[in-house]
Write a structure and sequence with these properties.
This protein has helices at 2-18, 25-40, 54-65, 84-89, 106-109, 128-137, 163-168, 174-180, 197-209, 217-224, 231-239, 267-278, 283-301, 306-313, 317-328, and strands spanning 44-47, 71-75, 113-118, 139-140, 149-150, 153-159, 184-186. The chain is of the alpha/beta class and 329 residues long. Strands 2-3-6-1-7 form a five-stranded parallel beta sheet. The chain has a two-stranded antiparallel ribbon with strand order 4-5. Strand 4 and strand 5 (149-150) form a beta hairpin. Helix 2 crosses helix 3, helix 6 runs parallel beside helix 8 and helix 9 (197-209) packs across helix 11 (231-239). The model is unreliable at 245-252 and 254-268 (pLDDT under 50).
Length: 329
């Protein structure tokens, strides 16, 4: 019982330090498993939908470990297959055309700290055997080098898709999956932890407007009735729609201007679909237009950030980059 009390106290301190909110029983269970794994030195695989806070959980894992080194992060969706080895392991001078000097990779940066591989399911298949050896032995060689180097790190991997499916599809190595899946923590979507919605909103406005902010009953209801396919990230996007009245930045939110509820089905959307069908436009063409509009909407919501928009839509960042290139072309 004493150990549980100590763990709870450490979790509370870490949440306060990171400015995070988690009151639901499901998230409390996630935090306890994360804390236990970190204190025991067990590597962790976080699986859950985009926008559920896996990057913040990686920071907590690093804090729980109380190690001397840094948290080194690599977003695997941004890796070019030809340069993936350099990003992970570093390279020696002259290893390839543009290697004008030697440099460390993210594995060296994580020495005595924590390595966070975000969206590891997007890691190029050709580099996965080398990463497996590094994880097993905590040793690596720079691209173009012959010397084995050592890096001692804790490991957190994250994926918004089930890696078992990637293994079945031949896109992810089974041996690597088993190595990183010693402790799998499923991060619940926001719709399954409704108890966290109001506390998250209160925290958001407290950070923006100061302490003592309270939410009116209608606003609480408006926030909790939505299912949040984009999870916490989408919640914060919705909160941005709520603007204080002039000169009332510190006012209670019951005095703030509330936007209309966002409907599940848009009358405008239904209208253009109806018009498209009436005009004889095929289903493929309608899907293409809907996809373009979804990409445009996601980019607007995410202030033109391809990374955030991709996470919101559950696609690769490259998909949004190509879309923007098409528009500029």
């Amino acid at each position: 019982m004493q150990a549980l009390t100590s763990a709870q106290a450490n979790i509370e301190r870490a949440l306060d330090a990171q400015g995070l909110v988690a009151q639901s029983a499901s998230m409390r269970q996630v935090l306890f498993h994360l804390y236990t794994a970190a204190r025991r030195g067990v590597d962790v695989l976080l699986q859950g939908e985009s926008g559920t806070g896996k990057e913040q959980l990686a920071r907590l894992y690093h804090q729980f470990r109380r190690c001397d080194g840094d948290l080194a992060t690599l977003d695997c969706t941004t890796l070019d297959e030809g340069l993936a080895g350099s990003e992970l392991f570093g390279h020696e001078r002259g290893a390839f055309t543009s290697a004008h000097r030697s440099r460390d990779g993210v594995i060296a940066d994580a020495d005595n700290g924590t390595l966070f591989l975000d969206e590891i399911g997007d890691l190029p298949l050709a580099i996965q055997p080398k990463l497996l050896r590094t994880i097993q032995e905590r040793q690596y060689r720079r691209v173009g080098g012959n010397q084995w180097m050592t890096s001692t790190f804790g490991l957190v991997c994250a994926s918004h898709v089930a890696l078992e499916s990637a293994v079945d599809a031949g896109n992810f190595r089974l041996d690597l999956y088993h190595r990183i899946a010693a402790c799998v923590i499923m991060v619940p979507p926001l719709r399954e932890r409704v108890e966290d919605i109001v506390p998250l909103a209160e925290h958001y406005f407290a950070s923006r407007c100061g302490d003592g902010v309270s939410l009116s009953g209608p606003l609480r209801q408006w926030l909790c009735q939505y299912h949040y396919p984009g999870n916490v990230r989408e919640l914060y996007q919705r909160l941005r729609l709520i603007q204080p009245e002039a000169g009332a930045a510190q006012a209670c939110l019951s005095d703030m201007v509330m936007p209309c509820s966002i409907p599940e089905r848009s009358a405008t959307g239904d209208n253009w679909i109806h018009q498209s069908v009436s005009a004889g436009l095929g289903l493929d063409a309608i899907k293409e237009r809907a996809t373009r509009e979804a990409k445009a909407s996601a980019l607007r919501l995410c202030d033109d950030s391809c990374k955030q928009a991709a996470q919101l839509l559950g696609v690769s960042e490259r998909t949004l980059q190509l879309y923007k290139s098409e528009l500029s072309g």
